[in-house]
Write a structure and sequence with these properties.
The strands form 6 sheets. The chain has a 4-stranded mixed sheet, with no helix packed on it. A hairpin with a 5-residue loop joins strand 13 and strand 14. It is mostly beta strands. It folds into 2 domains: 97 residues, Cupredoxins -  blue copper proteins (Immunoglobulin-like); 116 residues, Immunoglobulin-like, CATH 2.60.40.
């Protein structure tokens, strides 16, 4: 994934983008979710109606300008939306935008997990891999660490064409409606957040509970110190 962008309500986000890709020689873009912008900064390839930000060729640069408005509060994806956006997104051309209320404190532990697959035409491996942040299988995927008493927020995004679930062994949290959950569903380009005060030390497994996804690599470790 690309870098995580942080902003507060009222900020203007200026994203300087350079297409440094040399192997495939493809035009790529940055398309954001959750922020306000004019059509020039949409970052979408639109055929005959494409603007400069929707077709950034290799070695070219473009500056996107987005606004964080009151309805932008949350955690949102950004991703390639150029002419080959599906495979390029599977290759890892995506990231997150975190927008908070002005002055709102950050959690003690905050991590972003992207659930996605990498097909054979991307990896050259004759099997489909289900990944977390571009990696597969616990020990290779991100290991999240926290301590008892810390405020934890794990933001989980779906970044492929599948529906996934997110489960942390030994933990529950409230969803946006206030119900306790431990295995919510996340769809393509959706975000769910597991937010809680940590109180259960140990080494815990987290994973997608679609078993075929877990068995193909979509799992990791969550380690809590006393």
């Amino acid at each position: 994934p690309g870098p995580t962008l942080y902003a507060e309500v009222g900020d203007v986000i200026v994203c300087h983008f350079r297409n440094a890709e040399r192997r495939l020689r493809q035009a790529v873009t940055v398309h954001p979710h959750g922020v306000r912008y004019n059509p020039e900064y949409d970052g979408a390839y639109l055929g005959d109606f494409t603007r400069a930000g929707g077709f950034v060729e290799p070695e070219e640069e473009f500056t996107y300008v987005w606004e964080a408005t009151p309805d932008s509060v949350g955690v949102w994806p950004y991703h390639d939306h150029g002419p080959n956006h599906m495979l390029n997104t599977f290759r890892g051309l995506f990231g997150a935008v975190v927008i908070r209320e002005r002055g709102a404190p950050a959690p003690d532990v905050e991590r972003i997990l992207f659930l996605h697959n990498m097909p054979p035409q991307v990896t050259g491996i004759p099997r489909l891999l289900h990944c977390i942040n571009g990696r597969s299988f616990a020990g290779n995927t991100p290991t999240i660490r926290a301590r008892v008493g810390q405020r934890v927020a794990i933001h989980v995004m779906g970044m492929d064409s599948n529906f996934h679930t997110f489960h942390i062994h030994g933990h529950r949290w409230r969803d946006a409606a206030g119900a306790f959950v431990d295995c919510p569903t996340v769809g393509p380009n959706e975000t769910i957040t597991a937010s809680f005060v940590e109180d259960n030390p140990g080494r815990w497994l987290y994973h997608c509970h679609v078993f075929s996804h877990q068995d193909a690599g979509m799992a990791g470790w969550y380690v809590v110190e006393p």
